[in-house]
Amino acid sequence: MHISEGVLSPAALAAGWAVAGMGTAVGLRRLEPERTVRVALLSSAFFLASLINVRVGPGSTHLALIAPVGLVLGWAAFPAILTALLLQAMLFHFGGLLVLVPNTADMAVPAVAVYLLFSGPLCRARTSGAAAALSFFAGALAVLLGALGVGLFLGLSDGNLLDAAKVLFAAHVPLALIEGAVTAFMVTWLRRAAPDFLERSSGGQRPPETPS
Amino acid sequence: MRLEAGFSLGGVPSPLDVFDPRARLLCALALSLLLSALEEPALLLCAALVPLALLPCGPVRPLLRVLLRLNAVSLAVALLLGVTYPGGALWGPLSREGIRMGGLIALRLNLISIVLLRLAVAMGPMRMDTALSRLGLPEKLRVLLLLTLRGIFLLMERAASALRAVRLRAPGLRGMLKWRAFACVAASSLPQGSDRSERMMMALRCRGGLAGFCQ
After folding, report:
1. Residue B90, class by beta-carbon neighbours within 10 Å (0-12 exposed, 13-18 middle, 19+ buried)?
2. Which residues of B touch A52 (CB under 8 A)?
3. Are A72 and B191 a contacting pair at CB < 8 A?
4. pLDDT grade for B1, boundaries at 50, 70 and 90
5. Were both Cys, which of A80, A137, A165, B90 would link to B96 (CB 3.0–4.6 Å)?
C-alpha cells in the first residue's frame, strides 16, 4: 500500500502533509510521557510483524496490521506509524522520505477510523465469535480504506490515474480478506490470553466496561 | 529479517558529512519536491545533473542494488499505467500516454531516490534524529523515534526465535493455519512488548530519564 516516490504531485504531497500533520499533532497531544515507551515498543512490534513475508500462491505479501495498530494505540497510531515508516525508509530503503507523510496519512487514518468504530463494540462483545467477526470487518475495512486513500492521492495528482487507482483497489481485496482473518485471530488470542490488554491500550480513553 | 548490508546507526561516511545535517535534510526535501513538480522529460533530464553529481558521494553498489529493486516496482507501475492511462494506442492494450507517464514516474523515482539516499538516508537514523530535533521536531516524537529504534533491535531476536519455533513445530503449515500461527506470534509480542516497556520505563526513571525526558 506504499506509494512510491515520483508519483504524487506537490498538491497531493501537501494534502498528505496536512492530514498527517494534524493527526500526528492530535496523537502527540493525547500521548502522556509515561505511555511513550509503551507506544514505542508496540510500534516496533508492529514494524517487525509487518516485515514478515508470507507466500501467497506464486507470490508473497507482507501484512500491514493497520487495524491492530489502531485498536491497540488509538490516536497514537499517527506518530507510531510515522516513526515506523521513517525507520523502514532509513533501515530498509522501503518506501520513501518525500512520500513518508502521505503514506502515514494513508495508513493512520484507517487505523484511527477502525479504533473509533470498533474499539467500543469489541470491548462490549460478549462472545469470541462476535469479537472475531467484528475484528475481521475491522481488519478488512482498514485495508480497503487505505487502498481508497491511495486512490484519492493518485486522483489528486492526476485525474487520469483514477483507472489505475481502481485496479489497485481491486488488487487489495484479497489482502483485505487476509488482514481481516489475521486481525480476527489476533483479537481472539488477546481476549483469551490478555483480556484487559485491548481496554488498557485504547489511546488513554477507556471504552465502556464490559457488562458482567 | 535482516538489516541492509553495511547498515550503521551512525550512517555511511561520505564527503557530504562536512555539511550541516539540517542543511542536507532541507536540501534533500527541496530538491525532491522540485523533481516531483517537473512534468517535462527535458526539464527532468536537466535537473538530473544534481542527482548524478551526488552518485559518487558514497558506495555505489549498494545504491545501485536499491535502485534495481525500485525499478522493478516502477516497471510494474509503467505497465499498469500503459493499460489504464487514456491515450492513443502504442502496441496492443498499451497507450502511448500511459507508457510516457510510466517512464516519467520511473525517471522521477530514480532521481528523487538518489537525492534522498545520498543526502538524507546516508546520515543514518541517529544523525537524522539530531537534525530533526534541531529543526524543531517535537520532543515526544524524537523520543518515540529513538525508543522505537531501540525496540526494533530488542524485539527482532525474539520475533525471529518465535517464527523459527513455529516453523520447527509445524513445517508444513498452509492456508488459514499458517495465517493463524503468524497472527498468534504477532499478538503474543504485543503484551510482551507492553510488559517490557513498563520495565524500561522504571529503568529510565531510575537512571534519571532520557536526556531530561520521563524524569
Report:
1. middle
2. 1, 163, 182, 186
3. no
4. very low
5. B90
DSSP SS3 for A87: helix
CA distance B182 to B180: 6
Dist. CA A138–CA B209, nearest whole Å: 37
Asked if A152 and A1 count as a contact pair (C-beta separation under 8 A), the reply is: no
The CATH number of the domain holding residue A62 is 1.10.1760.20
Whether the per-residue pLDDT at A212 is higher than 80: the answer is: no
pLDDT given at position A81:
92
pTM exceeds 0.95: no
* In contact, A157 and A8? CB cutoff 8 Å: yes
In the DSSP assignment, the letter for residue B57 is S
pLDDT digit string, tens, across residues B6-59: 445 667 788 888 889 899 999 999 999 999 999 888 998 899 999 999 988 888
SS3 label, residue B156? helix
Q: pLDDT value at position A59?
A: 59
A-facing residues of B in 13-32 (CB < 8 A) are 28-29, 32
The grid cell for A171 is 488488487
Query: Contact A114/A42 with Cβ under 8 angstroms?
Result: no
Q: How far is Cα A103 from Cα A12, in angstroms, rounded to an integer?
A: 11
Residues B138, A119: contact at Cβ < 8 Å? no
Domain count, chain A: 1
Decide if A5 touches B, using CB distance below 8 A.
yes
Half-sphere exposure of B169 (CA within 13 A, CB side): 10
Q: How far is B40 from chain A (nearest CA, A)?
A: 13
Provide the ipTM.
0.84
Can you tell me which residue has the cell 514478515?
A: A52
For residues B106 and B116, give the distance between their C-alpha atoms in angstroms, rounded to a whole number. 15
Residues of B in contact with A6 (CB under 8 A): 35-36, 74, 105-112
Tens digit of pLDDT for each residue in A121-177? Answer: 988 888 989 999 999 999 999 999 999 999 999 999 888 888 888 988 998 898 899
Phi, psi for residue B94 in degrees, rounded to 5: -85, 135
